[in-house]
Each structure stands twice: as structure tokens, then as C-alpha cells.
Amino acid sequence: MRYGRLNIMAGAAGLVICALGGMALGFTFDRFAVQEGNHLLTLTRFYLREGHSHGMPISILNLVVGLLVDRLALSDGLKRACSWLAVAAFVLPLGLAAKGAAGAAPDFPPFGLIGVIGFLGAAVLLFIGARRAE
Questions:
Q1: pLDDT in tens, 24-43
Q2: CA distance 89 to 129
Q3: By the 8 A CB rule, do 66 and 7 touch?
Q4: How far is CA 116 from the centre of its chain?
Q5: Per-residue pLDDT tens for 82-107?
Q6: 8, 66, 69, 102: most buried, per Cβ within 10 A?
Q7: How many helices (H) and strands (E) in the chain?
Q8: Backbone phi, then psi, for 72, in 5-degree steps?
Q9: What is the CATH number of the domain that holds 74?
């Protein structure tokens, strides 16, 4: 395993961290999301929840990349790029969670876009490498 090790470690760590974040959101649901029997979702809690829910599939993407990247019909440089792009995808849930932790400020910088580009880049390279394989 030449390129996939980092992705497997990142994917496994991401699953644990996102699961813990989901547990924290669940344990605090009644205290912060229910008022007088009504379910309320503040913008802050919305972004924290989005960080949790976007982190899970990105973790799975990293596990898939970790298991497959060395088998893809790509050059070593593109394999390395695929691996790093998948790890860079974690910027999206980190950006969403950071925006939530900052109180969902409207002028918060959109650095989560780096994660979107990473996710798309890794997915495209997975597709190309699998398509070229025999």
C-alpha cells in the first residue's frame, strides 16, 4: 500500500470524529432544539449538523480511495493527487462546523469550497482510473 495508507487513516479518524459529533448533537437535542414542544433548528446548530453529516460520506470516500488508489490505472502522480484531494475534502465539513461554532456569521469565509473541489477531484480520478483498468 503506497498511497492509500493516509486515506484509510483519515477515513477511519473521520468516522470516529463525525460519530462523536453526531452523539454530541443528539445528546444536546432536547436542551437546544426543543422549546415548548416545538422543534427548532438554529442556524448555528444547522451548520454543526451539516459538518457532521458531510464528514461521514467524505470519510467513506477516503476509505474507498485508500483501498483502491494503488490499483487504479493512473500514473504515480495522479494516484498521489487522488489521495491528497480526498484528504482535502475534509475541509468542507471542517468549514461547516467552524461556521457553526462561530455562530453562523454571515461573513464567514467560504473555505469549505476547497473541500468540494477535493471531493470532486478525487471522485473524477477514481472514475478515470477505474475506467482505464483492465
A1: 888 887 777 777 777 777 88
A2: 19
A3: yes
A4: 9
A5: 999 999 999 999 998 888 888 888 88
A6: 69
A7: 6, 2
A8: -70, 150
A9: 1.20.120
Contact criterion met (CB below 8 Å) for 122 and 72: no
Helix, coil or strand: residue 22: helix
**Amino acid (one-letter) located at 105:** A
- Considering its fold, how many domains does the chain have in total? 1
Question: Checking DSSP bridges between strand 34-35 and strand 38-39, what pairing results, if any?
Answer: antiparallel
Domain span at 38:
4-132
* 69: DSSP letter: G
Answering whether pTM is above 0.85, one says yes
Question: How big is the chain, counted in residues?
Answer: 134
**For cell 482510473, what's the residue?**
129
Farthest-apart Cα atoms in the chain, separation: 61
